Amino acid sequence: MSNILVSVELTADAFAPFGDVIEARGSPTSVINGGRCGRYHDLANLDFHESGRAGINIFQSQPIALPFQLRLVERHPLGSQAFVPISGGDYLIVVAEDEAGVPVRLKAFHGERNQGVNYRRGIWHGVLMPIEKAALFTVVDWIGDRQNLEEFHFKEPITITAQTS
After folding, report:
1. H-helix or E-strand spanning residue 99
2. Are strands 37-39 and 30-32 parallel, antiparallel or unpaired?
3. What is the pLDDT of residues 28-73, one digit of tens each?
């Protein structure tokens, strides 16, 4: 595994193997509230183990600076997890495929403040990483009485840099 990872633009197609991009692109699905509100409907596939329920949380995250030394990723086997920015600016998104319980083939995306992501159940992903200023995120995830967090710590940190034009 390379120890340098370059972040790329977050798009629905590029992120599809790992989950959904939550954003208002194109025309609204419908217009509601007396014609004053456009609705972008059903933007993420929430998937939760039947022993729990969906919960809405707010996370406050401190900023990172690029280049960033990624030391761990995590995953949630009992439910998908959505991050939707409330405040702050752009943020870094890291995902990985799984190979026998080990995250491999990492990818990094540069998310804009108007884009959220929904990680599929069991997808390795980085922690919240707002770039340059603190941020609040609405987080939708599985709530229950079982352990729903696995962490993987890399032997050597992975340096993440931004894509340059």
Report:
1. strand 91-99
2. antiparallel
3. 999 999 999 999 999 999 999 999 999 999 999 999 999 999 999 9
Domain count, the chain: 1
Domain enclosing residue 37, as ranges: 4-162
- For 101-141, write each residue's pLDDT tens digit: 999 999 999 999 999 999 999 999 999 999 989 999 999 99
Number of neighbouring beta carbons within 10 Å of residue 80:
22
For residue 136, the SS3 value is strand
Q: Is 103 exposed, middle or buried (0-12, 13-18, 19+ CB in 10 A)?
A: buried
CATH number of the domain encompassing residue 114: 2.60.120.480
Residues 84 and 152: beta-carbon distance below 8 Å: no
